[in-house]
Amino acid sequence: MDERLRQAARAAVERGLDFLESVVAPNGSWPCWRYDNTGLVGARHREYPPFAAALGSLALDACHHPGARALVARTREFIRSRMQYPGVWSYPSLPPSVDDTAICALAVGPHPWLRMGSLWGRNLDVLLAHRDGDGRFVLWMPGDDWPRGLDNEVDAVVNANVLAYMGDHAETQAAQRWIEAVVAERREADASPYYIEPVDLHFALARASRFRDGILGELRPTLASRILERLGADGGFGDPMRTAQALSALDMLAFDLDEGVLGAVVGRLIEAQRRDGSWRPCVAWKEPPGWADWVAANEGPLHVLPPRGFASEAMTTAFCIEAMQRSLR
Question: What is the pTM of this model?
């Protein structure tokens, strides 16, 4: 990138960090919005899940700005305060989940209940207990009050996040082989009931490779190729969050973008930044169709809503900061 664009990217990072400083609470919690649909229209409800804070903190790990380091430090304290024995996390008012646990464990830093280097954390046995008959990780860690008839589904992004935390072990081989088949056969959309776009899985796998060597095998070139297929003529990979995640994923996969393409993508992100330094909220995950089916069967069709969508301008902003910081290396 030319120096003019590099300066603009640095300024965008500064504005983004100023925005995050204004919305991340003093206790380190990150705001997230729950909508009654994935179009993010109509009424919305503010929540402060540790999952959103952990995703934002992991994104800011790429930024060595003092403001980013301070945000990460207080975010980790919040995530640690929400940990349940023996090292699991949950979304507010829901049972613990494999996804919350894997992402929060990655973000929180050293703790005696968690995996540290070669040390087997207490929560790993809990995670391993929540696999299906094919060795793939399910989402929920349900208790006795789990609603009867509601499926505990398998999601490829969730499995990629578990791989980022657990790494390459005999116990994760089945999940790895399944994900490899999903990508090779272009089944990303069908294999991810809780997430939205194929790049969600591609980014999760690239992030996993950042934490654990050896889990992608020969998948790196395929992942890079899949991501590049999404590049539009406008320099974007979809919405601002997916554009940022695609750019970061390519960097984590050690793929060198053409300078002209890199400049176009970074320019697109800079143009999308809002006056307050944020980027708009983009739907990050959703409830699967199975939830609506269960509600219709058990509570009647009048209770059915479209799958609810979850979004956060704070999370989107953190992903955009990560992407631009990586582009400046």
Answer: 0.94
> Identity (one letter) of the amino acid at 3?
E
Residue 110 has pLDDT above 80, yes or no: yes
Give, as one character, the DSSP assignment of residue 31.
Answer: -
Whole-number Å distance between alpha carbons of 9 and 303: 46
Q: Which long-range contacts (CB under 8 A, 24 or more apart) does 250-256 make?
A: 250/206, 250/224, 251/326, 251/327, 251/329, 252/206, 252/207, 252/209, 252/210, 253/206, 253/209, 253/220, 253/223, 253/224, 254/220, 255/224
Strand positions, DSSP E, the chain: 32-35, 44-47, 285-286, 309-311
Return the percentage of the chain with pLDDT > 70, whole number: 91
Continuous segment of H or E residues that includes residue 224: helix 220-229
Number of residues written out for the chain: 329
Rounded Cα distance between 61 and 319, Å, is 10
The span from the CA of 317 to the CA of 14, in Å, is: 11
Q: Tokens 């009867």, residue?
A: 148
Q: Counting beta carbons within 10 angstroms of the beta carbon of residue 240, is it exposed (0 to 12), middle (13 to 18) or buried (19 or more)?
A: buried
* DSSP secondary structure letter of residue 283: -
Tell me the torsion sign for CA atoms 317, 105, 164, 94: negative
Distance between alpha carbon 40 and the CA centroid of its chain, in Å?
18
Range 169-185 burial, b when 16+ CB lie within 10 A, else e: eeebebbbebbbebbee
Condensed to tens digits (0 to 9), the pLDDT of residues 46-89 reads 999 999 999 999 999 999 999 999 999 999 999 999 999 999 99
DSSP-derived secondary structure letter, 308: P
Task: Beginning with the edge strand found earlier in the chain, give each strand of the sheet holding 44-47 in spatial order.
Answer: 44-47, 32-35, 309-311, 285-286
40 sits in the region (left: phi over 0; alpha: psi -120 to 50; else beta) called left
Question: Which CATH class for the 3-327 domain?
Answer: mainly alpha
**Can you read off the two tokens belonging to residue 161?**
């996040």
DSSP 137-193: BBSB---TTPPTT----B-HHHHHHHHHHH-S-GGGHHHHHHHHHHHHTT-TTTT-S
